[in-house]
């Protein structure tokens, strides 16, 4: 199953059709995506029986797949090659920070560069479909609504200022957390733990890996996070980025006005940001 949002409304994607959930369900499920995630199991059962002849909209997605989550988690150094390019040892436990919710946006946007050194970080993003507390890795996938594409744009000056790094601030400028274009349930993949991920800047492939290279795969991340705090329906987990970021290059490379960033993940789709001056 695939979902997306249009004008903040939950939509079901079936083939070429984009179906407004509230209208097609005659109000059984609301337009608010977060409210739908609260009833995810019931929604999946309803969607499985829905015919594509439901209420359709011709427009594509314009918002993130979960635009108003209560919590946004992000994981640093979750690919061994990224830790190596940063000159750091692979972590023994997940390095966790947040991206504040006002940084969330949709899949095809203009990225306003605030100045300084703005970098790219392609990421697989998990959206939770059930409240998760003290979940085991074995059971973790049953708590996931689906997977989507994300970018963890990072302003490296703000990120590194002060006596300790300011990860959350440096990664939370408006537009720094695009997701989409669709949310895909795990059963759509042959192996949801092994997906090709790539980032291109102006057509040049700068990051290319597979999510099977994560140090802490999705089930382990859910287990570790849910051991500390409940994960709620609609919550996002940015799962980390592979090697190839601009900050680790020689010479270092950062985004400039006019640059185009495309981020894609196998079986899901792609994001596209055009960089503009603030």
Structural summary, described in words:
The protein is of the alpha+beta class. The protein folds into two domains: about 1-50, no CATH class; about 70-275, Fumarylacetoacetate hydrolase, domain 2, CATH 3.90.850. About 15% of the residues lie in helices and about 30% in strands. The chain has seven helices and 17 strands. It has helices spanning about 20-25, 35-40, 40-50, 80-85, 155-160, 165-170, 220-225; strands at about 1-5, 10-15, 15-20, 70-75, 95-100, 105, 110-115, 120, 120-130, 145-150, 155, 175-185, 195-200, 205-210, 235-240, 260-265, 270-275. The strands form three sheets. Strands 1, 2, 3, 4, 5, 6, 9, 10, 12 and 15 form a ten-stranded mixed sheet that branches. It has a five-stranded mixed sheet with strand order 7-17-16-13-14, with no helix packed on it. The longest helix has 10 residues, at about 40-50. The radius of gyration is 18 Å and the shape is globular. About 45% of the residues are buried. The mean pLDDT is about 95.
Quick structural overview:
The protein has 278 residues and is α+β, with helices and mostly antiparallel strands. The chain has seven helices and 17 strands.
Distance between the termini: 37 Å
What structural category characterises the helix and strand content?
alpha+beta
Q: List unreliable stretches of 5+ residues.
A: none
Secondary-structure arrangement, i.e. CATH architecture of the largest domain:
Alpha-Beta Complex
- Classify the fold: give the CATH topology of the largest domain: Fumarylacetoacetate hydrolase, domain 2
CATH superfamily (homologous) name of the largest domain: Fumarylacetoacetase-like, C-terminal domain
Q: What fraction of the residues are assigned to beta strands by DSSP?
A: 25-35%
SSE string: EEEHHHEHEEEEEEEHHEEEHEEE
Main sheet overview? 10 strands, mixed
Shape: globular
Radius of gyration: 18 Å
The overall average pLDDT, rounded, is 94
Helix content: 10-25%
Number of domains: 2
Specify the number of helices: 7
Task: Name the CATH class of the largest domain.
Answer: Alpha Beta
According to DSSP, the number of beta strands is: 17
Family: Belongs to the FAH family.
Protein name: Fumarylacetoacetate hydrolase family protein
Pfam family, one: FAA_hydrolase
Keywords: Hydrolase, Metal-binding
